[in-house]
Write a structure and sequence with these properties.
The complex is a heterodimer of chains A (about 110) and B (about 120). Chain A is an all-beta fold. Chain A has no helices and twelve strands. Helix content of chain A is about 0%, strand content about 55%. In chain A, the strands form three sheets. In chain A, strands 2, 5, 6, 10, 11 and 12 form a six-stranded mixed sheet that branches. A four-stranded antiparallel sheet of chain A has the order 3-9-8-7, with no helix packed on it. A two-stranded antiparallel sheet of chain A has the order 1-4. Chain A is globular and about 45 Å long. The termini of chain A are far apart. In chain B, strand 4 and strand 5 form a beta hairpin. Chain B has no helices and eleven strands. The chains are: A mainly beta (about 110), B mainly beta (about 120). Chains A and B meet through strand 5 and strand 6 of A and strand 5 and strand 10 of B.
Chain lengths: ~110, ~120
Amino acid sequence: AQSVTQLDSQVPVFEEAPVELRCNYSSSVSVYLFWYVQYPNQGLQLLLKYLSGSTLVKGINGFEAEFNKSQTSFHLRKPSVHISDTAEYFCAVKGTGRRALTFGSGTRLQVQP
Amino acid sequence: EAQVTQNPRYLITVTGKKLTVTCSQNMNHEYMSWYRQDPGLGLRQIYYSMNVEVTDKGDVPEGYKVSRKEKRNFPLILESPSPNQTSLYFCASSLSAAGSGGTGELFFGEGSRLTVL
């Protein structure tokens, strides 16, 4: 079985401050990991992904995430957020050989001026 | 432009009135899937399809049907909608079937908000 836990349902932060959105996963096999972003009234779009190789992954819009196998985590970070980063962020995991992604419950990032 | 298209985007209906939400992708993807999104629960998979004429249940299939007669289309059918099916629905597709070596990276439609009264 595989599962994803996003510990924070909402994260308020001021513009230009750094942010970290936490994601922990559980899987009995090796995994692929993803972060998706959902802007208001839109579908989900891929922010970044970890498939193999370097554990630090860079995505669009200045976001990055680090895969930590020992802590089974894949936290998302940005050093300086903008108002336009206000959105909901979903972490997802797929075990190799499994047929579907499993999504976390989402974290709503609220960037305040 | 590569995209996944869902229709309708918004729908209000009444209990028991059959409805279909269409989904079409123009990327020649093998894998397609339906999710529902509810507050605090994230996305839960309803049904998926590995290829034409191959469909299978996801985590929450009760009350839904699907079909995959053509590679590009994957409609979601609610034979007798009930209020607990009020939700935001997303169709997604992937180049190769997750689990057959594919990475599982999904491309999403813009969503269909369904209200069942």
